[in-house]
Write a structure and sequence with these properties.
The complex is a heterodimer.
Chain A: H1 17-40, H2 57-64, H3 66-99, H4 105-112, H5 114-117, H6 120-133, H7 147-170, H8 174-182, H9 187-215, H10 219-224, H11 232-240, H12 246-270, H13 272-277
Chain B: E1 4-13, E2 16-26, E3 31-35, H1 42-50, E4 57-62, E5 65-66, E6 77-80, H2 92-101, H3 107-120, H4 136-148, E7 154-158, H5 166-183, E8 186-191, H6 194-200, E9 203-208, E10 211-216, H7 218-223, H8 228-233, E11 238-248, E12 251-256, E13 260-265, E14 273-278, E15 284-286, E16 295-306, E17 310-317, E18 322-328, E19 343-348, E20 354-357
Parallel strand pairs in B: 3-8, 3-9, 6-7, 7-8
Antiparallel strand pairs in B: 1-2, 1-4, 4-5, 9-10, 11-12, 11-14, 12-13, 14-20, 15-19, 16-17, 16-19, 17-18
Helix pairs in contact in B: 2-3, 2-4, 3-4
The chains are: A mainly alpha, B alpha+beta.
Chain lengths: 278, 358
Amino acid sequence: MIWRRSKPAPLDYAGRLWMKIFIAAVFVLLYAPVILMMVFSFNDSKRNIVWRGFTTKYYEKALKNDGLVEAFINSLTIAFFNTIIATALGAMVALLLWRFRFPLKGAYEGFMALPIVIPEICMGVAMLAFFNRVGWPAGMPWPLNLSAITIAHIAFSFPFVAIVVRARMAGFNRELEEASRDLGATEWQTFWGVIFPYMRPGLVAGALLAFTLSLDDFVITFFTSGPETVTFPVKVYSMVRFSVTPEVNAASTILVLITIVVTALMIRLQRPDKAENA
Amino acid sequence: MSIISIQHITKEFPGVKAVDDAHFDIAPNEFFALLGPSGCGKTTLLRIIAGFETPSSGQILIDGEDVGDTPPNKRPVNMVFQSYAVFPHMTVLDNVGYGLKVTGTPAAEIKSRAEEALEMVQLGHLGARKPDQLSGGQRQRVALARALVKRPKVLLLDEPMSALDAKLREQMQLELSRLQQDVGITFIIVTHDQDEALSMADRIAVMNEGRVEQIATPEELYESPNSRFVADFIGKVNLLEGQVVGAAEGSVTVDVAHLGKVQVLHSSPANGNVSLAVRPEKIRMTPDEPSAAAMKTQGKVTDWAYYGDTSHIYVQAEGGPRLSVTVQNSTRATLDTTDIGDQVWLSWQSEDTLLLNQ
């Protein structure tokens, strides 16, 4: 019976009109709020409800807002130190789990991933309680006053690095390591000459992940920040409590753009063909 | 003076004896093959020589020196890995020069020696390429050049042909033999492919379940295997069960069903149940009873496998064993002479018959 249409294969559905509409709706709901925020950051209106014309004055205003700029610099500083330390720590954990067998390895692996699954609010409360309990000094000069937040950020971002790096190492051919040893290289030469170059795309991706996680973290930061150590997300939150002004929109747009650029970089570096040549 | 001396090497993994009391020497400039089915311990033995595994007991001497405490990077041997293990992030030239660079060779010398090694494997023009731009055969040549540039005393090859297609494999086998003669160093190759071992090696060690069954030249292994395993593993063989009924100087009389009492050349003592082994290509198949043949039996052709150059014919002796016969298709008419169901006579010479203890 030639005229009967056969059952479509799963991917055939993508061509159907109702599926296209559904997909479009999903994208609109996902991205319309962000795009709206970006558009209204150029709105020439204080109340920010009705479109009253194009202006960039709120970007100027945001850049002149000392509190906002200071918070932004704080965020970048925290993200910078977090990225370096979390990447190093995560990479070492990944190597440990990839390379060695030891008692309770499974348990250790589970504990290591805990910061990923633990509710952020719990992590925040725990961090607050911890720093209070040990009497972590407050009011130190910049940038030491950011140490508590940085430590909290490292604690929740290094497992992400470890997972990314470990996934990369899972594809490593152990014969490469043996070949290097066989050709006369010491263990250190083998690590820097063969293992590290292979690990690099995973390290870069993990580092960028740690950077974005730190940059836009609110919940955990909120619990560990004091009046002197306001980060960008915390500052934006405090500004929103009065009203959503175009200034907040402008500041948020800048953050979104930074996140997009970093994420695009990360995806580029994770591309398998790139990874092999890296 | 042997280049490698393996002295009572045993390697135990939890629950398995991977290598069981291996004890033999390898001569300088020898092309030596470790042959056996997968899991027979041949790769473990190679890795023990390279230093990637430590033997549970026994000693290894390389060029007279005990290397028991020498790590792999200090041993005068180099290896071509099964996966070739070409470093993906380096160019071909950097790959070949790596082993010289890590040991502090001057840059100019590295370059000239690496280029020379690449010429030797006919890849001189591809030095600037990355490994992912190479074919499997080319990657293997890179691995070869990378190992040979170190001028090792012994080159170890772990199943080097297993990833190549049949045509390329034959070409590489010839090339490896030529290369070994050119560089004049000892090659030890691990393989499960008997053709590979027979065609390339000067001597072959056949391994089974961790034990070295026999070490001999290819001809000796094929013509005079010392056990049923070796006879069966190297080539095809027909095994006929029988009983020793008498012995004379240099020969044994065996009573075999369907053949009767036959005399077989055999120098060592034998008694009880034995197997007679005869290679399929040594059997003659004729329609009529041959007059002058030491061993003969009648049977019916049951199967016929055609391989182009040869055919394998299976003949069922009445109420007896099923024998395989290899026939050269030396003329186009060879095929037409016999058909399935025909009654044929099989015969062979007594000197082509081997006696194997059970």
